[in-house]
Amino acid sequence: MATRTDPLTLEVVELIGTVVARYHEEYERAAAEHALTGAQARVLGLLSLEPLPMRKIALTLKCEPSNITGIVDRLEARELVERRPDPADRRVKLAAATAKGARTARELRDALDFAREPLAGLSEAERTTLRDLLRRMLGEEA
Fold first, then answer.
1. pLDDT at position 32
2. Beta strands 81-86 and 52-53, pairing class
3. Which single residue of 32, 92, 129, 130 could bond 86 by disulfide (Cβ 3.0 to 4.6 Å)?
């Protein structure tokens, strides 16, 4: 059984750290090209998928709801995001990407070559295996 300090485990941990660091560098660079912070870009990316209440955004990004309020305020001032009532509960406000915000989020995703390009060199079976192993590491169903 592998321990946390065996050479293979240490190498895998180091490689994962390098991948994460390079992804974040590219993400920050892509965000900056749109005059966004990394946090603003992440919120916009989430909201381009579906409208969400502030609390759900905070839970997903593992940060304080008050931080999300400030980020959404700044995105709203740039007309990338809008607040609207939740149709299921009108007391709840949802943040949603505007058409301009959805376009910007798509451009951000398209600019992220680091993760996409190396993955394109893997077969579908290899990508499936990698996905399943990452899900297992995160404690999710494979």
1. 95
2. unpaired
3. 92
